[in-house]
Design goal:
By secondary structure, this protein is α/β, with parallel strands linked by helices. It folds into 3 domains: 82 residues, Sandwich (Immunoglobulin-like), CATH 2.60.40; 300 residues, TIM Barrel (Alpha-Beta Barrel); 87 residues, Immunoglobulin-like, CATH 2.60.40.3950. It is built from 10 helices and 31 strands. The strands form 8 sheets. Strands 18-17-16-13-12-22-20-19 form an 8-stranded parallel sheet. A 6-stranded antiparallel sheet has the order 24-25-26-31-28-29, with helices on one face. A 5-stranded mixed sheet has the order 1-8-7-3-4. The N and C termini lie far apart (62 Å). About 3% of the residues have low confidence.
Length: 511
């Protein structure tokens, strides 16, 4: 009887093999799985204790035959498995749809509403549980976190584990005052970059699984500069070995995105040629072509590169953040995700002390300009646990307002919004693909920090529109009546208001 696996689930087969020498560099194992509709070829990996694993993610409800070859197998292993209906909540991988937006493999639109908790998975188990509990009731469907440990302000402790065999430097001398002295320091670290710590990566897999059960995408940051262990300075050979191991372990999970780097321009040991080479490794060894991005601190990477599927943006200006979203869309002709447009919090840095109202304003601004905002929270507490780095408990006021925005997005009659020119003081969005058509059946007008007591509209002279007045901060939607031709919409003279116009399906006759 054939094995079975759900559509977009993980098929896995384990094999016993040699554990002497260095199995990570001296042995190999590969899988080829075929159905009438697809052929998947993947690298396997050594999982410690003489165990080797191969995995694949089937995309079609068909029978697959599979062949496994390995350096230690005297002859290929063959088998088959049947693919059943997907598990509830699994809509498949996310891909680019309608050029500037996203959808799941089953066609359901996906509006990425992300948050950042860089090393939540490397904290005490109680903090990890608190993070997952917070995410279960939050609106976020994507979370950015690092594969490597992080060394940065407010995050100077040791992680619960390390990706390679070895021992770290003595961190007992680290504190906030000498943080800068130790940034990037590697003396005292004794890690073997040729020997992975399988339990470290198994734990990340478990985190990816748990996030998938919550319907959350794992936006995995593969390299970053916040380092005192030397992981950001391993060199191209070690980097490729690490990437291939990560892809072999994680690529078969449907809810994975690849972020090649966070603040790529802060890693002086790597050139653009290095990044392009590492990107080619991702493209070559990921048979599913998960979403791929690279994130900036200062200058943007060239998001026009073919391997980049979407723009992962950190704002470059203190004042113009989400306001540039439509320009970036036009420049790169790809989806724009503002993964770092500032965080709600109270720390000393300008990027980490936004008010909740300002962060929510930036979300709406990004949305109405055809992109997607990103959340983070940096409240300094007595326990030293900041969501942006450690996860834990969400306490800011922006989260429920972002959830309210998500409900508005779910009511869009299409896949995503596009900014259209309007009056000089309007930010107006229509359903993407309708910007050049006649009267728009749906439009969303956002006023941000302005406080109008009314706005006048004239779309055309024949169409009846159902008007909604949206208070984006107080999270209310008020019926503004049904209007035709020239009409006035009264507003409360408060900040953060929006107006939504939806065409009446009954036609041009007022009920």
């Amino acid at each position: 009887m054939a094995l079975s696996v759900p559509q977009w689930g993980v098929f896995e087969q384990a094999f016993s093999g040699p554990s002497d020498g260095n199995p990570f560099t001296e042995q190999w194992i590969r899988l080829v799985a075929e159905s009438p509709s697809e052929r998947i070829q993947t690298e396997g990996f050594y999982d410690g204790s003489g165990v080797y694993r191969v995995r694949c993610m089937p995309s079609f409800p068909q029978r697959y035959t599979c062949t496994v070859t390995a350096s230690f197998l005297t002859q290929p292993w063959t088998g088959c498995f049947d693919v059943t209906e997907p598990q509830q909540g699994n809509h498949g991988m996310v891909h680019v749809a309608n050029r500037f937006h996203f959808a799941y493999q089953d066609g359901k639109p996906m509006y990425p509403v992300g948050t950042t908790a860089y090393v939540w998975h490397l904290q005490d188990p109680a903090i990890q549980r608190a993070t997952l509990k917070a995410l279960a009731s939050a609106p976020f469907n994507k979370i950015r976190f690092c594969v490597f440990p992080k060394h940065y302000e407010y995050n100077l402790g040791e992680p619960i584990a390390y990706p390679f065999e070895g021992t770290p430097m003595d961190s007992s001398v680290l504190n906030e005052r000498n943080f800068q002295e130790y940034t990037g320091r590697t003396e005292g670290n004794h890690f073997d970059g040729t020997r992975f710590n399988p339990s470290y990566f198994r734990h990340i897999e478990e985190c990816i699984r748990k996030l998938g059960e919550l319907g959350i995408e794992s936006d995995l940051i593969l390299f970053h500069p916040y380092d005192r262990w030397g992981f950001s300075q391993m060199g191209r050979v070690a980097d490729e070995r690490y990437l291939r191991y990560v892809v072999a372990r994680f690529a078969s999970f449907h809810n994975v995105w690849w972020s090649l780097a966070n603040e790529y321009d802060q890693l002086p040991a790597k050139t653009i040629d290095d990044w392009e080479y590492l990107a080619s490794v991702l493209v070559r060894f990921d048979p599913y072509h998960h979403l791929r991005s690279i994130h900036n601190c200062g200058p943007f990477y060239d998001h026009g590169k073919e391997w980049i599927t979407h723009c992962s943006i950190q704002r470059q200006d203190v004042y113009r953040t989400a306001e540039n979203t439509d320009q970036w869309r036009e420049r790169y002709q790809k989806p724009v995700v503002l993964d770092e447009m500032g965080y709600e919090g109270n720390i000393e840095h300008g990027w980490g002390n936004l008010s909740a109202k300002e962060l929510v304003r930036r979300f709406w601004e990004a949305t109405c300009r055809g992109g997607y905002g990103g959340h983070g929270e940096t409240y300094l507490k007595k326990d030293g646990i900041l969501w942006w780095s450690h996860g834990g408990v969400l306490q800011g006021e922006s989260t429920p307002r972002i959830a309210f925005l998500c409900k508005v997005l779910e009511d869009i009659p299409g896949n995503g919004l596009s900014h259209v020119p309007a009056r000089w003081d309007d930010v107006c969005a229509v359903v993407d693909g309708e910007a050049d058509a006649g009267p728009k059946p749906y439009s969303l007008w956002y006023y941000g920090f302005q406080r109008p007591s009314f706005r006048d509209f004239h779309i055309d002279d024949v169409t009846w529109y159902h008007v909604d007045v949206i208070d984006t901060w107080n999270m209310t939607i008020t019926d503004g009546g049904i209007h035709q031709g020239r009409f006035r919409v009264p507003l409360p003279g408060r900040e953060y208001m929006a107006v939504r116009l939806r065409k009446k399906e009954e036609g041009s006759r007022k009920p």
